[in-house]
From TrEMBL:
PANTHER family registered for this protein in UniProt: F-BOX DOMAIN-CONTAINING PROTEIN (PTHR34145:SF56), OS02G0105600 PROTEIN (PTHR34145)
Domain At1g61320/AtMIF1 LRR, chain residue ranges per copy: 131-424
Pfam families: F-box (PF00646), LRR_At1g61320_AtMIF1 (PF23622)
Listed name of the protein: F-box domain-containing protein
Biased composition, class Basic residues, residue ranges: 15-24
Chain positions covered by the region annotation Disordered: 15-63
Boundaries of every F-box domain copy: 63-99
Length: 427
């Protein structure tokens, strides 16, 4: 929409010139200016010598404040912004201080078209390098680099780009390398000496943290996403202990972490997700104001300090149903939404005297084939009695091997529910 409006503004004088040549409007007065009789202000239409020796109108652009022009330019896609800067002096100035830059194969117009990966990687590196050299470095708030190719010299380019971009003004940094084999070590030392004070969002993928130098500058960090990042629990602990403003934490496929400890000093943390970190065996949360979390993995032990704030939980771990029944009612008494995806349960759902007094939505999925033959799928009916405020209950069973008795066997106490009326139920 911004680009369409700009095109209309630019095309306006051309339409007037065409109508003038057809005799539909009067030619400009002899002094060469189209002036406003009402206020005497100079118009944006000025005389210019035509190649034929006569006079023609030249349009200098809309008379808008510089900050408005800069905002319009910042909303344009990268390629359109670059083209506008090449034909407009006003846009050229804003290009040199463009606040948001996102590099990807689509934003740079790179397609395969028979070219190999090395050629694409080479073009990507050279184009990004050229664009950043044209930028003044001032005013850059957001930088996103999504590699579409990878070469041996990419590390050199990337180091120089980050050195240029990480300033006390940068607020958001996203770095997505193309391949797991790209063993790039993120230079966290760039955040030293106050250069990381303004960073709020940090999103990096497929690289390594091998040092904790500079992490003490990330005091304003609010959002962290680490995907396929080789970071140890000690390095992660250092990052978290220095990020007191953190609000959201996402750890995805981080294979070196064995333990995630979220300290109590993270008082603003409201959400954390630990997904498919296959070596994690313990997740310990002491942050007091967490309202939701999503945990997936295998044999993960979850330790939760009692929290009145937690309302939404997603569990995708072994024996998730048993854990939920025994641990959650006391640890998170105000829980409202619970989703459980279990692929391994050793025993049927245990009977517990604890209740989910505020639980309104419950979704249970039994997946895979790693269930004990003695497991009774319908023992999860226990939740109907344990959650008197339940409104929605979804049960999904998808198992490759299931004994007939686990479905239609003799009624057991685990299948029976007290005669409680679920007045809130929408099942």
């Amino acid at each position: 929409m911004v680009l369409l409006a700009w095109n209309r503004l630019v095309s306006f004088p051309r339409q007037r010139q065409r109508r003038r040549r057809r005799g539909q409007i009067r030619p400009p007065p002899p002094n060469g200016l189209v002036s406003s009789v009402a206020n005497g202000k100079r118009s944006n239409h000025e005389d210019d010598d035509s190649p034929q020796g006569g006079k023609r109108m030249r349009y200098s652009g809309p008379d808008l404040p510089e900050d408005v022009m800069g905002h319009i330019h910042s909303l344009m896609p990268l390629q359109d912004a670059a083209r506008a800067a090449s034909v407009s002096h006003a846009f050229l100035c804003s290009w040199r201080s463009r606040p948001n830059i996102a590099f990807s194969s689509s934003s740079l117009g790179l397609t395969e078209n028979g070219r190999g990966e090395n050629k694409i990687a080479s073009d990507f590196n050279s184009r990004v390098d050229h664009i950043l050299k044209k930028h003044s470095g001032f005013g850059l708030r957001t930088l996103e680099i999504e590699f579409c190719g990878y070469k041996a010299n990419t590390h050199c380019y990337l180091n120089s780009w980050l050195e240029f971009a990480v300033t006390p003004e940068l607020e958001e940094l996203t770095l997505m390398l193309p391949l797991k084999k790209a063993k790039y070590c993120f230079p966290s030392s760039l955040f030293s000496n106050g250069r990381g004070n303004s960073i709020r969002h940090l999103n990096i993928s497929w690289c390594a943290f091998s040092t904790t130098v500079g992490l003490d500058s990330l005091k304003n960090l609010t959002n962290v996403t680490l995907r396929d990042v080789r970071i140890t629990e000690d390095e992660l602990g250092c990052l978290l202990s220095n990020s007191s403003a953190l609000e959201q934490l996402n750890l995805i496929y981080c294979s070196k972490i064995t333990c995630v400890k979220i300290p109590c000093l993270l008082k603003r943390l409201s959400c954390f997700n630990v997904l498919e970190c296959d070596k994690v065996r313990l997740i310990e949360n002491k942050a007091p104001n967490v309202s939701c979390f999503d945990i997936s993995g295998g044999q993960v032990q979850v330790s939760l300090a009692e929290s009145l704030q937690v309302k939404h939980i997603v569990l995708r771990i072994d024996s998730a149903i048993s854990y939920a029944c025994v641990k959650l009612p006391s640890a998170v008494p105000n829980l409202e939404n619970l989703s459980i995806f279990s692929s391994r349960e050793a025993v049927s759902t245990p009977l517990s005297p604890s209740k989910f007094l505020h639980l309104k939505f419950l979704c249970i999925h039994l997946l895979g084939a790693a269930f004990s033959p003695a497991y009774d799928c319908f023992s999860v009916v226990y939740f109907l009695d344990a959650a008197p405020s339940l409104e929605t209950f979804v049960l999904g069973v998808s198992q490759l091997r299931m004994q007939h008795d686990s479905i239609v066997g003799d009624p057991s106490p685990l299948r029976q529910v007290e005669g409680r009326c679920h007045s809130h139920s929408r099942m």
